[in-house]
Design a protein that fits this description.
Chain B: GO terms for molecular function: ATP binding; ATP hydrolysis activity. The complex is a heterodimer. By secondary structure, chain A is α/β, with parallel strands linked by helices. Chain A contains 13 helices and 12 strands. Classes of the chains: A alpha/beta, B alpha/beta.
Amino acid sequence: MLLEVRDLHVEFRTRDGIAKAVNGVTFGVDAGETLAVLGESGSGKSVTAQAVLGILDTPPGRITGGEIQFQGQDLLKLKEQERRRIRGARMAMIFQDALSALNPVLSVGAQLSEMFTVHRGMSKKDAKAKAVELMDRVRIPAAAARAGDYPHQFSGGMRQRIMIAMAMALEPALIIADEPTTALDVTVQAQVMDLLAELRRELGMGLILITHDLGVVADVADRIAVMYAGRIIESAPVHDIYKAPAHPYTKGLLASIPRLDQKGQGLYAIQGLPPNLMAIPPGCAFHPRCPMAQDICRAEEPPPAEVDADRGSACFYWRETLDA
Amino acid sequence: MPEAILEASGLVKHYPLTRGVLFKKQIGAVRAVDGVDFALGRGETLGIVGESGCGKSTVARMLVNLERPTAGSIKYKGEDITRLSGRALKAVRRNIQMVFQDPYTSLNPRMTVGDIIGEPYEIHPEAAPKGDRRKKVQELLDVVGLNPEYINRYPHQFSGGQRQRIGIARGLALRPEIIVADEPVSALDVSVQAQVINLLDRLQDDFDLSYVFIAHDLSIVRHISDRVGVMYLGRIVETGRDAEIYDHPTHPYTQALLSAVPVPDPEAREHRERIILHGDVPSPANIPSGCRFRTRCWKARERCALEVPLLAVPAGFRYDTGPAVHASACHFAEAVSVT
């Protein structure tokens, strides 16, 4: 296994109290696999990614438990210096908002070539040539001429390609993409997702795709992990989960999205709101919104149940949910 | 279609591009909206979809008179509201209200919810006598599914979905006949989105509202709309009833747009055919000649550069019947199912 996260806990100390953003998350990614981490805002999906990459803001953030095994090393035991060598070279990130993730006062060519001068010790000239080659590879028209342009001179889709180029530059073993297409229009989203999938296949990388979009997940993911209130509440191969979800939250999500190919009669809506991370409900965090909640759900936290060899659900009533 | 309550014809909004400070010279124009026609029937929902920069929000702003059109007319019950001013305009505005996209910036953070929802009554005092207003605001909170006791709270004490309900309550305060909603759910989480869509559905029945629903999300637009207009670079390129557009699109842009939407069904990814458009949308300051979509269209031929396709039932369909027969601004329109 390329990456294995075990029982990860992250919290944020704020003036108003401690926000428990990630509460015991366990998952793994194989080489060449695409894992989608699905969740709404505040579910802890981005914080998990930041912890894995080691770019969590500390303070206020703090990793309070767990381990992150990457290519045989426990990342949480490494010094910052050593982690920095891994970032970019063996593990890279694609951010949602390319305009704020890229440096506005450096040309994109300079930012791309920096990857090669810093990590590979290349000469400036060679690095520049590599940068142009990369821009070409992510299909930026007239790459050589545009290497001197600044991020604001590119369209949203083109900027996201540059982010992808930067993440791929050193051919890392793992890429984490945090909502890579959320800011893009659908026709451009299709271009960018296509490109990402193609490069991932070519380079045989593992990909963690963080998203809230059930459509994007269905399009590209092999496996899916659904997060709620800082926990993974269901994980399964992508085909299984869309056919028969084993957690009421997943089921509710799937029922609540309008479909393009049919005119619905009224959408199913999950009642209530996602919980406040400073006051996560006791027992199962989803119980106040769950149509199946019983007394036990309010009292005890459901342990992960094995639905199948490669499927898990953190629900006492996963069988009933599957059958219903 | 039922009797039209709102009719836009030849709607144009150009923003001049100028050079120089003292002697300003117009050197061009951003053609944000470049000739849009549609009609909204009473009790009906008209969906307008398009990607960013297509002019859909500018259309919304013109409908509620936040922008004056450069040319064209907007008729509300037969009266052209673009020419009104003063008292007559104010009277019309009471009946056309707007719900904004971003529930974080469209509510004044220094006002209580009660003041926000009650503000329309300050502007139109005839809608509710002073003594009644608090009660009316509480009723509105109840109607949109919020606790009436929250009347003294501030916007930051609410979640995104709740704030959008506040925005909707404000839109309803004057009992308008038409609500123009510009991306009302796109800032919300999936589970909350469904709640707000259902709310809009219910309010339409309860208050006999007509909606102009503007969004980039094609699935949501299909869900809520009776008729749909697809916009590209300032024009509607295809329009029809929802099944006509979604199941039998004839304009290549609509086809590409629909095929690009990820469908939440992993089984579909093997057999669904994707049309991937190349390049970006051209700048509205520099619109291509002829058909404005031709620079990204795989069907484009010489004729497309020379002749502007009109939004009408394409000539090839003139003798046909069925759902493929609807207005589509393409010289080479053909019905293809992409979903």
